[in-house]
Amino acid sequence: MKLCGAELRFVSMPLVTPFRTSLGTQTVRNALVLRLETSQGEGWAECVADDEPDYSPEYLTGAADVIRRFFLPRLLAMEELDPAGVAVALGGFRGHPMAKSAVEMAVLDASLRAAGMGLSAYLGGVRRRVPVGVSVGITDTIDELLGLVDKYLTAGYLRIKLKIEPGWDIEPVRAVRETFGPSVALTVDANTAYRQSDIRHLRGLDEFGLLLVEQPFAPENLHSHARLAAVMETPICLDESITSAHDAATALRQGACSIINIKPGRVGGYLEARRVHDVAQAHGVPVWCGGMLETGLGRAANLALASLPGFQLPGDISATARYFTEDITAPFAVAEGHIEVPAGPGIGITPSADSLDRLTTSIERLTP
Length: 368
Prior knowledge:
The chain contains 14 helices and 13 strands. By secondary structure, it is an alpha/beta fold. The strands form three sheets. Strands 5-6-7-8-9-10-11 form a seven-stranded parallel β-sheet. It has a four-stranded antiparallel β-sheet with strand order 3-2-1-13.
């Protein structure tokens, strides 16, 4: 398979409601959609970088630039364009895992479509549908939070994740637990908002029977995570700290976590995500699939990843309607707390031409 051309397309998708975390408030999801034209057909992908370098050092227009100027020329020079060779070909470029993940995803999609194989089967998936949860942002009032949680539980989600930050943690979590009872699977996510001096305060979350506390400290601060894990009953989960299978092994060896959130964009692609999964399985550690407000393209690929056996907890792969009134693909829906893994070849889904055109803000076509 050879690369024949590419298309970089920016799309803008308004969120149904603002999504607030300790990093800020988001009202629109801008995404970069990549389409590769190959000698064996096309492949689709999206880059999950945010508009600004807050969650990670990457940002969306920078990702487009590095794909355009550096990554695509390297792919054009490959004698045989194959998924396993993408990481090798781009290995000389430091960083930019989300941009690399998008390129790998498009090559995977094209290659697997040509072979008539689905991404789930290629990765080693064992489920036709996966359990899903929902992430609930920080709200202005506890009453508003309770209303949202009630809405999502009624919709059938199997796990509720609450975003927290200093000043919005113990009391909101207490209100949700007391209102909805001990049977609700409940987690919290701090997005690095706390410091080591907050360890005693964070221990107050133990009384609520949480499944996990996610990424309370800075990504590089494994020491503080290990100290917290040593004194908390609630398991510690890492997100931003895990950018590779090597990172996962290091964090587990240091006792910094006992659960891992895997996001393919954060670790550089679905093949590295599978390696993180394999490291966790070797240590007997459960994983789950995090979300980055993906379009239907990323949502489909994440469902394939979450079909692997080590994904033991519901992921942040919510129904399309949770975030968007219109997506660039056919919508995904929750049924009995699960979403079906796309069964078609490649990532199993392609954009709707009409929706894609309506939501597109700019297009750049590249040829050799």
